[in-house]
Amino acid sequence: MMKLLLVEDDIATSQYIRHGLIELGHACDHSATGVDGLTAALTSKYDAIILDRSLPQLDGISVLQALRAEGRKVPVLILSALGQVDDRIHGLDSGADDYLAKPFSFQELISRLTAIIRRAEGLATTPTIRRVADLELNLLSRTAKRGDRELDLLAKEFQILDYLARHAGQVVTRTMMLEAVWDYGFDTGTNVIDVHISRLRSKIDCPTEPPLLHTIRGAGYRLDTL
Fold this sequence. Notes:
The chain is α/β, with parallel strands linked by helices. It folds into 2 domains: 3-120, Response regulator (Rossmann fold, 3-Layer(aba) Sandwich); 129-223, Winged helix-like DNA-binding domain superfamily/Winged helix DNA-binding domain (Arc Repressor Mutant, subunit A, Orthogonal Bundle), CATH 1.10.10.10. 40% of the residues lie in helices and 22% in strands. It has 8 helices and 12 strands. Helix 4 links the parallel strand 4 and strand 5 (98-101). The two termini are 17 Å apart. The model has no long low-confidence stretch (mean pLDDT 88).
């Protein structure tokens, strides 16, 4: 679980981000002004800060510069409708760890947050093998096995399994999976995920093995040994 600070004055955007983060089990404090955001950032410890560039009272760049002037090294992801090259360079030169232009995909937001936190923790190396219990995914050959058993996966099934493995132990919602694997946005009425998950489960979980792929009723799916 990540503890995050969201500094965003747009109500719809802040609700969208906070809902998605809380749905994933993360803690997310929210400030609607630059002054309140700076105060929160200086008085509480966060894994990362999502900082809108255009804020009332104090703009995002000024908030960021004030944080860095105080020696705060917390990873900061800037959100902005200003997405030109010069805008991104200015944000990064001001001390941001990453810069995401609006509109954006929620999954991209999560991926970028994870990346800047990993970099801050010195964990930036990209793995070629991903393991969850006795399940192993080879990201180079795009193959998978459980124990000594090779799994005959279709390309889409491997994508789903890889995404679940990257979020092992966490609930993955249908919305997240649609965005990440199908890029369907928020078309949650489709049953394409349920069909693929059913096929994937039949390949991963044998009756003689502890189940790994779990359906979390009303929430989504989770890959772990629980």
